[in-house]
Amino acid sequence: MGIFSKAFKKTNEGFFQKLSRAIVGKSKVSDEVLDAIEEALVSSDMGVDTTLKLVEKLEERVDRDKYMSMEELVEMLRDEIAKLLNVTEDSVDQPVVPFDFSKKPYVIMVVGVNGVGKTTTIGKLASILKNQGKKVVIGAADTFRAAAVDQLQIWAERAGVDIVKQAMGSDPASVAFDTVKSAVAKDADVVLIDTAGRLHNRIDLMNELTKIRNVMRKVVPDAPHEVLLVLDGSTGQNAFQQAKEFSRATDVTALAVTKLDGSAKGGVVVGIVDQFKFPIKFIGIGEGIDDLKVFDKKEFVKTLFTVDDIK
Description:
Elements: H1 3-7, H2 9-23, H3 31-43, H4 48-65, H5 70-84, E1 106-111, H6 118-131, E2 136-140, H7 148-159, E3 162-164, H8 172-185, E4 190-194, H9 202-216, E5 226-232, H10 237-249, E6 254-258, H11 268-276, E7 280-284, E8 292-294, H12 297-304
Helix pairs in contact: 2-3, 3-4, 4-5, 6-7, 8-9, 9-10, 10-11
C-alpha cells in the first residue's frame, strides 16, 4: 500500500460510500446523482467554491459525453481534480526535497497555529534533510509556549541536528537572528525557524513575522527563502480559515498538510490548492519521524479517486 493509499483510505471510503448509494442501479447521471456528488465533495472538505466548480464541469461533460458507469464517473472526477492541481499525464515525479538549495543557507520560516503539528513537522523535515546530506540548524523562535522549546529540542536530538534556543519569553526575532548567524558560521545548508503559533489578531501576527524576517535579513539579505505554512488537514474548514489569515499576514510560499492518516477530510488538500494557489510540498501521515512525505500530486489524484475500495 502506497503512502497516499494509507493516508487517504478513510477519505476514499467516506466519499465513495455516499456516492455509490446515490448511483447504484442508475444508467445515467441524474440531478439526484449530481446532488449526491456535491454533498460528498463538500463533506470531504473540498470547500463550497471548489465543489461548485467541479460539479459544473461534471454537468458539462455529462451533457456532452453521457454517463454509463461508475468507472466513467470516477474518471471524470479524477480528470477535473487533476486539472485543479495542475497534474498532467507527463507530470514528472517530485524531487526528493522540493527546495532550491543553490542559496546557502536556505532559510525556511515555518508558521501555523498551535496544535497543527508545526513543531513535529520541523523535526521530521530536519530528519529528511539530514538524511539527504544537508547540514541543518533549527531555531526555536516559538518562545511563548512553555513546551515548545523543549519539544523542539527533543526533535532536534532525534534528527541529529543543531538547535539554537533562548529562555522562554525571549524575543523571537533575537532567536531567529542568532540561528541564522550560527548557521552561516557553521556553513550550514538549511535553517528551519519555528515561530509562535498564536493567532490573536492579524496585526500582531504580521508585526512579529515581519520583525523576524527583517532581523534575519541582516545576516542573509534575501531570507526567508521559503515560508512554509503548516495546516491540520483533519480540521476541514478551519484549515481554510488559517490559510486565509496567514496569507494575509505573511508571504506564504508553500504548505505542509498534517494529520491526514486518520482523516476522512482529505478533500481539503484540493480545496486549499484551488482557492489559495499555494503548492503543497509535504503531507504528514503519522507520528513517526519518517511520516512526513513529499507531496506527489499525480499519485494523490490516482489514490483519492479509485473504485477499488468499494467493489
